[in-house]
């Protein structure tokens, strides 16, 4: 199927395409390895997290990965951390939610597609009412991909944190709805929170440069294999666990 233009008015065709889209795993592994060498992130784990993640990966349990969001470079440093962590085996089988504007320029879109991107039409960009139907379809597609064995990475704060990089911002219920819908498809994804820190910054409204983003600190919490029943409860749990992960990343910088 030819990739459709990623426009809100074309969202049905967009999500039909990403419902079936498959990454080139060989290319993805190569790109993630390159980013791992370029950014050289430091990766740490809470007690028991490394073994638990390894066991879930070996069991082919889909992972719902939540990461705090600090800059436009996060997808690249996250990919670097995946290469240098227990997530390496799921590279090429992990989808990443990314804002729709990243899919406009052809060369960048090919890169995002190769890395597993799925477009998100955000209410902050298009208006909440305008994106409602597309958002519902996006969550359905994510749940279906989890049910088929893919993992999914989400920045659940929804936008970059330019307020306090050491404090997780409000988490929307979208991640909870995705997990809830996955269960309806008969799969129970494991929640894995991953904290990211670029170190202390005098002005959090100024994003780190590519050079400053090198050697970022990532910290994994122990994954949760049992989640609350309601989407809002899942979202609250995500914020709590994500703050613990962020605290670990800040401490490890």
TrEMBL record:
InterPro entries hit by this protein: Plipid/glycerol_acylTrfase
Coiled coil: none
GO molecular function: 1-acylglycerol-3-phosphate O-acyltransferase activity
Matching Pfam families: Acyltransferase (PF01553)
Keyword Acyltransferase appears in the UniProt entry: yes
KW Kinase (keyword) present: no
SUPFAM superfamilies: Glycerol-3-phosphate (1)-acyltransferase (SSF69593)
Domain spans labelled Phospholipid/glycerol acyltransferase: 63-199
Keyword tags: Acyltransferase, Transferase
Biological-process GO terms, alphabetical: phosphatidic acid biosynthetic process
Domain of life (superkingdom): Bacteria
The protein, known as: 1-acyl-sn-glycerol-3-phosphate acyltransferase
């Amino acid at each position: 199927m030819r990739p459709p233009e990623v426009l809100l008015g074309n969202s049905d065709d967009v999500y039909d395409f990403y419902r079936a889209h498959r990454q080139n795993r060989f290319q993805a592994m190569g790109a993630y390895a390159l980013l791992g060498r370029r950014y050289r992130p430091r990766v740490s784990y809470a007690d028991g997290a490394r073994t638990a993640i390894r066991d879930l990966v070996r069991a082919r349990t889909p992972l719902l990965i939540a990461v705090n969001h600090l800059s436009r470079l996060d997808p690249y440093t996250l990919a670097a951390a995946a290469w240098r962590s227990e997530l390496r085996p799921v590279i090429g089988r992990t989808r990443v939610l990314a804002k729709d504007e990243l899919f406009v320029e052809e060369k960048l879109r090919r890169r995002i597609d190769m890395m597993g991107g799925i477009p998100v039409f955000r209410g902050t960009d298009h208006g909440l009412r305008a994106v409602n139907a597309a958002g519902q379809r996006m969550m359905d597609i994510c749940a279906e991909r989890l049910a088929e064995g893919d993992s999914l990475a989400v920045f659940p704060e929804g936008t970059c944190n330019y307020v306090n990089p050491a404090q997780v911002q409000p988490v929307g219920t979208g991640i909870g709805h995705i997990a809830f819908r996955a269960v309806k498809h008969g799969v129970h994804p494991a929640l894995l929170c991953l904290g990211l820190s670029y170190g202390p910054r005098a002005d959090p409204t100024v994003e780190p440069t590519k050079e400053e983003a090198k050697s970022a600190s990532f910290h994994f919490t122990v994954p949760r294999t049992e989640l609350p029943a309601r989407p809002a409860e899942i979202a609250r749990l995500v914020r709590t666990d994500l703050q613990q992960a962020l605290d670990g990343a800040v401490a490890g910088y």
